[in-house]
Design a protein that fits this description.
By secondary structure, the chain is of the alpha/beta class. 43% of the residues lie in helices and 16% in strands. The protein folds into two domains: 3-72, no CATH class; 82-272, Rossmann fold. The protein binds S-adenosylmethionine. S-adenosylmethionine binds at residues 72-76, 80, 108-110, 114, 137-139, 142, 199-201, 215-217, 246.
Length: 277
């Protein structure tokens, strides 16, 4: 048996141990990316083998929590891919505006930047007060940060540029209060936001949403797990409900592809078809 094959067995056993001990299921995450993170973690911790890592994970909760932070890859930005937010303004908000009440789900929202970006768009379209937003992630520590809505001033500078590129023409500074090093997003932006812990691998859907945004999350899943998540979104959308994925993601490889039509093919914005034809 080659070293590569042994390593594959060790990775399988590690992911099984994490699942059994802590309930987090990474067994169907994309193999290449999870392997990179495991090897990096071994390296940083001075461990020679993945089996040693497994032992540490099983007997040391803090060690597991550090690995979980690493596995969850929380990279995000406000108005990330500004043209996506321009497309939301143009092609989605006019439809949502017609609804008596709007429900939006941000799945895998990380530290919340995406959620505040959407709240700003909704406010500018005058429909924020009429909207309930669910912002979820499987990483509790990250959800706490999202709820706080505090970002470094350096990041805020880049976010201001993104906001303008996304077609924003108000004063972005009106949406936060700046301190010495960081800015706190205005409370009214999150007045109708419920931040909650939700795992796309193991938790159920929680009601009908008019718009689901799950960007740059499915990219870390293998094909089978992508189908599970897309199935969950399909279940959570009424006919005509919108689903948005990240720029490197698509639902055209999914078993549910036929159930969705393109709204903005360039921005990965889809709409659930009417199931009655
Ligand atoms: C790269 S970030 C994307 C953040 C944001 N959606 C964006 O596009 O900027 C991926 C997020 O997905 C979350 N995530 C990964 N696996 C998840 C799962 N099984 N259930 C819920 N969230 C998950 C991670 O914790 C992380 O915050």
């Amino acid at each position: 048996m080659t070293d590569i094959e042994n390593e594959k067995i060790e990775i399988g056993l590690l992911l099984e141990a994490i699942y059994r001990k802590y309930g987090y299921d990474f067994r169907d995450y994309a193999k290449a990316s999870i392997k990179r993170r495991i090897l990096r973690h071994c390296n940083l911790s001075g461990l020679k083998t993945i089996s040693e890592l497994q032992h540490r994970i099983l007997y040391n909760v803090q060690f597991f929590e550090a690995l979980l932070m690493d596995f969850s890859i929380n990279v995000t930005e406000m108005f990330r891919d500004p043209s996506f937010y321009g497309a939301i303004r143009e092609s989605v908000l006019p439809v949502l505006k017609e609804l008596p009440h709007i429900k939006i789900w941000h799945a895998g929202c990380s530290t919340g930047e995406e959620v505040y970006s959407m709240a700003i768009l909704l406010k500018e379209a005058d429909i924020l007060d009429n909207t309930q937003i669910y912002a979820t992630d499987f990483n509790e520590k990250i959800i706490k940060k999202a709820r706080e809505g505090i970002y470094s001033l350096e990041k805020i500078k880049a976010y201001t540029t993104n906001y303008q590129k996304a077609g924003g023409n108000q004063s972005f500074a009106d949406y936060y209060t700046a301190g010495n090093e960081s800015a706190v997003m205005n409370k009214n932006l999150r007045a109708n936001v419920v931040f909650a812990d939700h795992n796309l691998v193991s938790d159920a859907s929680f009601g009908e949403m008019d718009l689901i945004i799950c960007r740059n999350v499915l990219i870390y899943f293998d094909r089978k797990l992508q189908d599970t998540a897309i199935g969950l979104f399909r279940e959570s959308l009424p006919s005509g409900g919108f689903l948005c994925l990240g720029s490197k993601e698509s639902l055209r490889f999914s078993i549910y592809s036929e159930d969705f039509e393109d709204v903005r093919i360039d921005e990965k914005i889809y709409r659930k078809k009417n199931s009655h034809g």
